[in-house]
Please model this.
Amino acid sequence: MALFSDLHTSFVHLAKKHPEVDFVVKPRPKDMHEKTLWDIINETGIDLSKLKNYTVEPDADVHDLIINSDVIIALNSTTVVEAAIAGKRVIFPLFYNYKETNNFNDFVWKNDLDLFDVAESAEELKSLVLEGLKNPEISENVMDGRRELFKKCFSDVEGVALGRYMEIIRNVVNSAKNRI
Model:
């Protein structure tokens, strides 16, 4: 629970300090039915009605968010690989010595940390977000590793899943460009 609290508190503080940057939180549906997310946000003491750059959008299209974002923060979700293959900076919030816990053994991406940014504290998360906004580019070496990870996660025996998925990403990108 401390991770969840520190993570969302960090978002609110970043939004307040950087009004030029939009911060969108796409919670899992179950998080919207619990008071926890809203309690945490209210505990920051920041009036969300005055933060025009901070939104909570549980029904937003995840692919639109990925395409329109420079930095993605995620954990055990396919969003990680989707954002990675789209060439986005992806940050894992692995606070509280998470890598030293038994839960880390179940962390889907534990063997692929070199392909992502890892924040081990709320302060490091804030720094990585700001760094990702300044320098969103991903090295070709890391992108090669991400493509391999994507194939491992989504490819089928015939290897056509990657092509289908890339076509979906292209369609989303083209659709977003047409709206702009």
Summary: Residues 1-60 form one domain.
